[in-house]
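Changelog note: in this version the structure field was regenerated for every chain. One regenerated record is shown below for reference.
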Amino acid sequence: MTEHTTPRPPDTADRPGLDVELSGVRKAFGTREAAITAADDVSLRIEPGSTVALVGPSGSGKSTLLHLVGAIEQADAGTITVGGTDITTANRRALAAYRRSLGFVFQRFHLLPALTVRDNVLAPLLPDRKALKEALPRVHDLLTAVGLDGRADALPAQLSGGQQQRVAIARALIGRPGLLLADEPTGNLDSATGERIVAELVDPAHRRGATLLIATHDPALAARCSRILRVRDGRIVEDTRPDAH
């Protein structure tokens, strides 16, 4: 990836899904004496346009794998390539552009408290004025799809946890990413709202060819994926591809 890499405009509906490959990836947290291994020699390839669920108990390493692929955490060893580009050796500027090109639903939302709902959704595109202008017409449609029509001018503190989660999902989708990473995207939603989010947002992203990597405890969400990876103690211990999707 070069220093001048920038994300594509948000309304590129046919943006191709990206392939993801991890080779010998390791990540540990803490001191040597009390280190916790969150990724233990993980090697994995995810095909473009596939939907992959990471399942397993809390602390198994699901979120760490998402953070490594999203370039939020840096691997201690191994390589990670996305769309053929090695993000483990990319420079700071290139990584910043790479992160902006992704869609990421964080488990803890990470909304900006001083910004309205509308501006939080648009925040990933702020560095690119052209992309921002092209995305403006999509904000209303996304907020309507997640059940937040009429709340565009609200601040995060005026929303419930579930509503904040829905803002985070809309923000992740505003740029029509080729790779969508989601950490428990339905974890703060009731079952009916969670089903609506999957049906109206996740499934359409898949239909247009985006690659989805989702960490979840929700068996219904995992069942909608084309591949399920079971994670335990930082390792992929089971890899299944359900017959029906």
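Spot check on this record: The longest helix spans residues 129-145. The chain is about 30% helix and 25% strand.
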